[in-house]
Amino acid sequence: MINQQQYSPQLTIGGRPEDSEFARLKNQGTSTIVSFLAPDEAEYAGEEAAARAAGLEFVSIPVTPDSLNFEKVENFCD
After folding, report:
1. pLDDT tens digits, residue range 15-42?
2. Helix residue ranges per DSSP H, 1-78
3. 44 close to 70: Cβ distance less than 8 angstroms
4. CA distances (Å), origin 23, targets 11, 17, 32, 36, 69
5. What is the pTM of this model?
6. 3-state secondary structure of 43
7. Cβ atoms < 10 Å from Cβ of 24
8. Is 2 helix (H, G, I), strand (E, B) or coil?
9. b/e for 39-64, b at 16 or more Cβ within 10 A?
10. pLDDT tens, residue by residue, 40-63
11. CA–CA gap between residue 47 and residue 39 (Å, rounded)
């Protein structure tokens, strides 16, 4: 996963994983993928399918330059 950084045992961030990397993330202890892609973006459906196929929970918080607001930040923090 490009730019992968582990901030704590519970939080790792990075770019969108390749489909083949979701199983590795699961094996490393990842439980949930949080996607900031909008559902109409090309990679969204593939990301959700790959995450679920690997046994990961998939949470969508779509963010675009026009839609970023405090409520979305709060949703992520929850």
Report:
1. 888 888 999 989 988 888 888 888 888 8
2. 22-27, 44-53, 70-77
3. no
4. 17, 10, 12, 20, 32
5. 0.74
6. coil
7. 13
8. coil
9. eeeeebeebbebbeebebebebbebe
10. 888 888 888 999 999 999 988 888
11. 10
